[in-house]
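User: Let's play a game. I give you a shape written as tokens, and you guess the letters that built it. Ready? Here's round one.
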């Protein structure tokens, strides 16, 4: 079964992948701003938004496979949060349709341990799993609060997130559980050096879910990657700091492949 996708604009293709518990509609302001020069496609991940949990996924590889089947040729792939893991995994699979990669609020490993300091404590992630079983809606609202926390525009950002999250109903609980498992279990640290696409990694300075240290580390591992650090932004800079985010993104998209510098 096809995943739901909404396409606007005309020009070179750019595909946007959202984060856990949300949907592609969250990118509406960004898509509108890009559509005068790009053909923008926003995909709802399986079990999120208007996409059914079929094809279902059990791990990052199967989620990436489900999404990859819906990509246009010769596209830039932008992933945010969980979507950034998916985007990176597709790039590692050698999909020849990808021209560029943009990773927003990204981390190669979501959970902190002795070998990785740029993540959430495992106890917090275990609380997420327990709360998901008790009350999925409550966990989603808590997760949104964490996404907004630290951002200098926290109040308005949280308002935007809350207004969008249940626009198409609550995500499939099975998809939420599978997505949380992907976040908990995925670890791309050993393979990032295999990404050969022109890559931009964008981080919010005050992101509490995927700390900017993770983005800096990723950009250092991916050959030639550019790093864009948005001051005073949190986990969703494309909403809270839309103008700054577009400046960094468009600069990267327009740059010559041999002349890119850190944003």
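Assistant: Ready! My guess for every position:
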């Amino acid at each position: 079964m096809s995943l739901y996708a909404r396409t606007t604009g005309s020009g070179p293709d750019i595909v946007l992948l959202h984060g856990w518990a949300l949907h592609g509609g969250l990118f509406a302001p960004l898509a509108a701003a890009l559509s005068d020069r790009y053909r923008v496609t926003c995909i709802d991940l399986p079990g999120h938004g208007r996409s059914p949990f079929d094809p279902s996924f059990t791990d990052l590889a199967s989620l990436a496979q489900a999404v990859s089947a819906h990509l246009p040729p010769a596209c830039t792939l932008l992933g945010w949060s969980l979507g950034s893991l998916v985007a990176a995994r597709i790039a590692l699979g050698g999909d020849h349709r990808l021209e560029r990669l943009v990773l927003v609020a990204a981390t190669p490993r979501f959970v902190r341990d002795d070998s990785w300091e740029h993540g959430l404590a495992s106890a917090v992630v275990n609380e997420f799993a327990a709360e998901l079983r008790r009350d999925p809606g409550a966990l989603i609202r808590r997760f949104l609060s964490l996404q907004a926390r630290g951002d200098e525009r926290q109040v308005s950002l949280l308002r935007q997130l809350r207004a969008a999250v249940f626009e198409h109903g609550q995500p499939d609980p099975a998809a939420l559980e599978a997505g949380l498992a992907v976040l908990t279990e995925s670890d791309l640290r050993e393979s990032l050096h295999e990404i050969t696409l022109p890559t931009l990694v964008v981080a919010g300075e005050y992101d509490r879910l995927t700390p900017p240290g993770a983005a800096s580390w990723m950009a250092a591992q991916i050959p030639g990657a550019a790093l864009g650090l948005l001051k005073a932004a949190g986990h969703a800079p494309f909403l809270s700091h839309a103008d700054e985010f577009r400046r960094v993104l468009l600069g990267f998209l327009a740059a010559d492949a041999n002349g890119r510098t850190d944003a």
